[in-house]
């Protein structure tokens, strides 16, 4: 269905109280074919993801949303429609079989799943036809994820999958995210089908927590590559080299990496890169720091002591607090180092 046709739907702005939808499966013809989706966390990533999900699932499928920020859920209703707002996250889980969470930090994921799982058993509260599936797309530490997964699995209330993503806000809006998932083999197909509605690639890395471990290893490397690229470009320019020529050479030689080729930190070297827009947009320095800290914590838990990560953490911590760099793309480290712009 096109956006125009969807916009013309008379039910678009109708929000039914949750109670009125509860019995829907029981009386609708062919209701067993209907699926139900819960979405918790409609922030910068979650909102466009939920929008893509609602646009791609059949109109008869149910979608229930929740966010502590009421204006986000209300905006979703006004803009997208055909969803029910749940007052609590527990209500989302009671009413739906596929629940997606996109939350900021480990403590938020813990708190949300505590509310969902720790009251009366969900199964006795509201039996559903299909096994309940929890897909957590938040970037958190593997230990927290493992605890939550165990709580869901051991109490028989549902299957839990870690599915962190890459692609940023632009990828989320375009439905082109890459998901890295940690899941048992028997649910990979079901999870892939759902995530493919919001992304272009789903990579299964192994059992629960594998998705997060893969994501953190990747982002650890990205954090270091970025600092190294900023330093290399800074010294090259200070030595008098032309930044575009230097980057061109690096990108056909052994120093080539994503920060040098796609997200080069020197303004004007890569057209459209955040560096050329006063480092606006892109991947925020604070988010990079968050992922780096999570990777270092998980490394420590595995008995690994990375040398370079601690130093990079100092750089990002200082850049994230610097007035000239705050709130900007992580390639702003070049500016923090005093790079020529
Ligand atoms: P965000 O802060 O914009 O959104 C999080 C949303 O969760 C907010 O709307 C907030 O109100 C809601 N929330 C918080 N606590 C809640 C609770 N208890 N119950 C219900 N809702 C609650 O964050 P984001 O940028 O959308 O990122 C979400 C996750 O995705 C993070 O873990 C982040 O690291 C990861 N991620 C972000 C990006 C990015 O570019 N922004 C890219 C990849 C991965």
TrEMBL record:
UniProt domain 3-hydroxyisobutyrate dehydrogenase-like NAD-binding: residue ranges: 211-337
Domain of life per record: Eukaryota
Alphabetical UniProt keywords: Branched-chain amino acid catabolism, NAD, Oxidoreductase
GO cellular component, one term: mitochondrion
Pathway recorded for this protein: Amino-acid degradation; L-valine degradation
Xref: InterPro entries: 3-OH-isobutyrate_DH-rel_CS, 6-PGluconate_DH-like_C_sf, 6PGD_dom2, 6PGDH_NADP-bd, HIBADH, HIBADH-like_NADP-bd, HIBADH-related, NAD(P)-bd_dom_sf
Annotated PROSITE patterns: 3_HYDROXYISOBUT_DH (PS00895)
Residue span, 6-phosphogluconate dehydrogenase NADP-binding domain: 37-206
Reaction catalyzed: 3-hydroxy-2-methylpropanoate + NAD(+) = 2-methyl-3-oxopropanoate + NADH + H(+)
Protein name: 3-hydroxyisobutyrate dehydrogenase
Primary enzyme class: oxidoreductase
Biological process, per Gene Ontology: L-valine catabolic process
Keyword NAD: yes
Pfam families documented for this protein: NAD_binding_11, NAD_binding_2
Similarity comment text for this entry: Belongs to the HIBADH-related family. 3-hydroxyisobutyrate dehydrogenase subfamily.
Enzyme Commission no: 1.1.1.31
Coiled coil residues, start to end: none
One GO molecular-function entry: NAD binding
């Amino acid at each position: 269905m096109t956006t125009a046709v969807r916009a013309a739907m008379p039910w678009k702005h109708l929000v039914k109280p949750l109670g009125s939808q509860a019995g829907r499966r029981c009386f609708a013809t062919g209701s067993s074919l209907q699926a139900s989706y819960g979405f918790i966390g409609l922030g910068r990533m979650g909102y466009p993801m939920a929008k893509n999900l609602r646009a791609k699932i059949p109109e008869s499928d149910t979608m229930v949303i929740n966010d502590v920020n009421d204006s986000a859920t209300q905006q979703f209703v006004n803009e997208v429609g055909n969803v029910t707002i749940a007052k609590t996250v527990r209500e989302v889980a009671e009413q739906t079989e596929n629940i997606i969470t996109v939350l900021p930090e480990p403590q938020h994921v813990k708190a949300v799943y505590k509310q969902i799982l720790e009251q009366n058993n969900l199964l006795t509260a509201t039996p559903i036809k299909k096994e309940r599936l929890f897909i957590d797309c938040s970037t958190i530490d593997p230990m927290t994820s493992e605890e939550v997964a165990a709580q869901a699995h051991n109490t028989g209330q549902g299957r839990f999958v870690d599915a962190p993503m890459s692609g940023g806000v632009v990828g989320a809006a375009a439905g082109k995210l890459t998901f890295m998932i940690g899941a048992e083999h028997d649910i990979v197909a079901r999870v892939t089908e759902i995530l493919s509605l919001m992304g272009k690639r789903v990579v299964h890395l192994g059992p629960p927590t594998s998705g997060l471990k893969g994501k953190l290893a990747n982002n650890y490397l990205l954090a270091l590559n970025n600092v190294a690229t900023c330093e290399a470009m800074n010294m090259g320019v200070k030595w008098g080299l032309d930044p575009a020529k230097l980057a061109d050479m690096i990108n056909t030689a052994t120093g080539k990496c994503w920060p040098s080729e796609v997200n080069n930190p020197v303004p004007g070297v890569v057209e459209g890169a955040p560096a050329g827009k006063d480092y606006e947009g892109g991947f925020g320095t604070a988010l990079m720091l968050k992922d780096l800290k999570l990777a270092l914590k998980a490394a420590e838990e595995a008995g690994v002591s990375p040398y370079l990560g601690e130093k990079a953490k100092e750089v990002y911590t200082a850049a994230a607090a610097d007035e000239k760099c705050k709130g900007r793309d992580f390639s702003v480290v070049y500016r923090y180092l005093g790079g020529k712009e």
